[in-house]
């Protein structure tokens, strides 16, 4: 049989149960933590989904604002095309009749256009690439398709003259730090192309007419109109809105190309009390469920532990000891079963009371814990009876040595040192592998030890 370890080593079954309880508490904590994390992830996923829907709702609102401006711009450009075509057709009537033409013929129309569209700046007639007439007369306009600008806009002029329709183009810089949208109409006489009518509209004023300043607060806008050659462009708004979260629309109209961008000054998602409350409540619910699971796991383990142990001593109860003994009987190893009883325990209870009787029991338990090995099992078998399973025990000698160490335990009861004596009955596994038979043998020998005078150990008979 293995030698007995030192008495100060952690050897008791009670300590093993304590370690098991700690393990169960740790497992309960890990389970609760896992459930909490899963619930928090679900809460976060739903929160993010809700938030993304709100963000998309905000982006859709911004997109709606852009669509409104886009609609207004298209209406303005359509009007510009219409007026340019009407003015051009009126001038062509004079050309067809053989009269010289000038913008004075349509000055009343141009006055009206200036009144209803503040963006209208001036008009020109160019012939053979030279500006021949301007409106209004008091200002000398050199913006047209003269020799200086012909090379830059040759492709556009050629397109206008070929298709014989109104075209919109820009931006066109007049040299005064103002960019213009230009509307062109090719004038024809009986011999073909006679010249070019061009109406100039201030880009900044066009955007104001389109309602860019009517966009509700909380947005920043950025528009950029780019000439086909990318050499000229007109920008309006804050270029900072080109960040990734901006809603962007790329558009074209006739020969115009431009980009509209809108972004929130803060975030697409406005402050949402329901979303905030969901995040807070969802987090607390997740933590609450985790705590609830943890406490219930602890409660379950406590109930489970109580069902396996004695409430007073913390040792295994009789049912669990019998399970342990059944398992040991199936294994191919020698063992011994020792049944212990406190001598004259009734007298201790009658003399000092049941509380002091419990104190005597606990004193004996502590003594047993100090002297048995970690591999051994101990249980409370009855009121003042304890039973021990000694693994790897081939003879009764070890049981005798243990009995000599614990046969007398002194405990102070009401200021008096009282000696607690025990009797022990031992049964070896070689005498049989039936649990009931071994316990019955140990009990019979314990009874014999008491009949022979108490304070004894009996290993035979």
UniProtKB/TrEMBL annotation:
It holds the Pfam family GGDEF. NCBIfam families: GGDEF (TIGR00254). Keywords: Membrane, Transmembrane, Transmembrane helix. The keyword Membrane applies. Residues 333-461 form the GGDEF domain. The keyword Disulfide bond does not apply. This is diguanylate cyclase. InterPro entries: Diguanylate_Cyclase, GGDEF_dom, Nucleotide_cyclase, Rev_trsase/Diguanyl_cyclase. The chain crosses the membrane at residues 25-47, 275-295. It comes from the Bacteria. Its EC number is 2.7.7.65.
